């Protein structure tokens, strides 16, 4: 178990710093956003599993040689109120940390989901009073606002796409179609579920730089995936023009001020660049990255259960 | 016939437009100018009680019949929605998926060059 704990700790450190940094800096995710999204999910899941797994393995080492036996021994020893030989303050501490961290992550996920749902419900309730339905597009509302705005409001039962009057004025019909297809793709592909998980991860681990880096990367990748869906309905240059026009505020809004966070400078440009200069996905990305993603998620449980590492 | 949700919206708009609290009867008269001529008073009451439950209107029981008025001005709700939609509401903006964030002038210029527009 000690060997498993050490190997998992190494994996946790790799996934907390060098691996996400390398992925964030590479160029291929813009060309294969779906594959990159899969990899980020694997990194997040494997990172959490290896961190908790490492602490759990270290904490349970006195109880048995592998996880299941150790957990059984832990349950029976706890009932009797006794500690096995080899229990140290350190192993007790590791066990407590594993349980606290696991509980903290689960509690944060639940809290974030509840809070996000509440914010959406509040926004939806106001929106329904302030916007008119667009007869030509189902589940689409027109907001009477000068600023060019488009967004979607995910919901379990009723999701809405919102366009402002300013946006409809600013863009051509085909550009508006591109925007609508983009927002529908978010809803169809359930991007909100992935995003809320990464949002919870960032809130749970504020001292973990990788969590906010991952959230930014995943946010941009879902935008690219939605762009790719819109590209099947409107030509690339049309979509690129729509993104540029809305990002610049159509001249209605001033510069992003102190209260208004500007978009990450490179993110809009990266979205437009891949539309203007499309590049093929490298072959190794298509094959190796999905394999790596699966391996990442499989390794921590195998390390905890396999007898070879439990000596 | 409009859906109940749309009826709530037009009713609230009428209450916003009115300078004073309205009785259900007065509201029905204001609503009855369009396609919904002859809206039943019970329907207006239902709409008002739903709006009250959602916190959009308040009922004044001291008058008879009771009168209804909006709790907040329209502008306050618009400001809240725009805050969320423009990304100025901080963390709350994460609850919705915006098409694209705001770019600075420098960045806009870079985008236009990329598109070959300048």
Automatic annotation (TrEMBL), chain A:
Its cofactor is Zn(2+). It comes from the Bacteria. The chain crosses the membrane at residues 40-60, 89-114, 283-309. It holds the Pfam family Peptidase_M48. One of its GO terms (molecular function) is metalloendopeptidase activity. Keywords: Hydrolase, Membrane, Metal-binding, Metalloprotease, Protease, Transmembrane, Transmembrane helix, Zinc. The keyword Transmembrane applies. Binds 1 zinc ion per subunit. Residues 131-198 form the Peptidase M48 domain. One of its GO terms (biological process) is proteolysis. Belongs to the peptidase M48 family. This is M56 family peptidase. It comes from Amnibacterium setariae.
Automatic annotation (TrEMBL), chain B:
Keywords: DNA-binding, Transcription, Transcription regulation. The keyword Transcription regulation applies. Gene3D superfamilies: 6.10.140.850, Winged helix-like DNA-binding domain superfamily/Winged helix DNA-binding domain. InterPro entries: BlaI_family (IPR005650), WH-like_DNA-bd_sf (IPR036388), WH_DNA-bd_sf (IPR036390). GO terms for molecular function: DNA binding. Pfam families: Penicillinase_R. GO terms for biological process: negative regulation of DNA-templated transcription. Belongs to the BlaI transcriptional regulatory family. This is Transcriptional regulator.
């Amino acid at each position: 178990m000690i060997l498993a704990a050490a190997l998992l700790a190494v994996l946790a450190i790799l996934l907390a710093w060098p691996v996400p940094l390398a992925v964030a800096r590479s160029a291929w995710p813009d060309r294969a956003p779906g594959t990159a999204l899969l990899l980020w999910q694997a990194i997040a899941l494997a990172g959490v599993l290896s961190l908790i797994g490492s602490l759990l393995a270290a904490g349970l080492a006195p109880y048995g040689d592998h996880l299941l036996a150790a957990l059984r021994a832990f349950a029976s020893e706890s009932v009797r109120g006794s500690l096995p030989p080899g229990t140290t303050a350190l192993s007790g501490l590791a066990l407590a940390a594993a349980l606290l961290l696991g509980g903290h992550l689960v509690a944060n996920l639940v809290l974030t989901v509840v809070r996000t749902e509440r914010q959406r419900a509040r926004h939806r309730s106001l929106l329904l009073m302030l916007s008119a339905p667009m007869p030509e597009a189902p589940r689409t509302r027109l907001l009477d606002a000068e600023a060019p705005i488009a967004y979607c409001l995910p919901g379990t039962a009723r999701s809405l796409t919102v366009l402002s009057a300013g946006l409809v004025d600013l863009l051509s019909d085909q550009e508006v179609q591109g925007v609508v297809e983009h927002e529908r793709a978010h809803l169809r592909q359930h991007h909100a579920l992935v995003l809320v998980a990464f949002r919870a991860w960032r809130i749970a681990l504020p001292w973990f730089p990788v969590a906010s880096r991952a959230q930014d990367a995943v946010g941009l990748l879902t935008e690219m995936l939605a762009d790719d869906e819109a590209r099947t309905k409107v030509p690339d240059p049309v979509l690129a023009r729509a993104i540029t026009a809305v990002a610049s505020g159509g001249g209605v809004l001033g510069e992003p001020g102190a209260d208004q966070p500007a978009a990450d400078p490179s993110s809009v440009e990266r979205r437009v660049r891949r539309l203007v200069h499309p590049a093929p996905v490298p072959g190794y990305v298509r094959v190796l990255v999905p394999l790596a993603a699966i391996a990442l998620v499989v390794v921590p449980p195998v390390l905890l259960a396999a007898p070879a590492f439990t000596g | 016939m409009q859906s109940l949700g749309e009826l709530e919206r037009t009713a609230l708009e009428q209450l916003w437009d009115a300078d004073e609290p309205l009785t259900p009867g007065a509201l029905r008269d204001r609503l009855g100018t369009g396609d919904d001529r002859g809206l039943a008073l019970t329907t207006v009451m239902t709409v008002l009680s739903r709006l009250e439950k959602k916190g959009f209107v308040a009922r004044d029981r001291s008058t008879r019949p009771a009168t209804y008025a909006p709790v907040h001005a329209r502008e306050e709700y618009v400001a809240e929605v725009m805050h969320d939609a423009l990304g100025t509401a901080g963390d709350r903006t994460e609850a919705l998926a915006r098409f694209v964030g705001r770019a600075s002038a420098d960045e806009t210029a870079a985008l236009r060059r990329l598109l070959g527009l300048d």
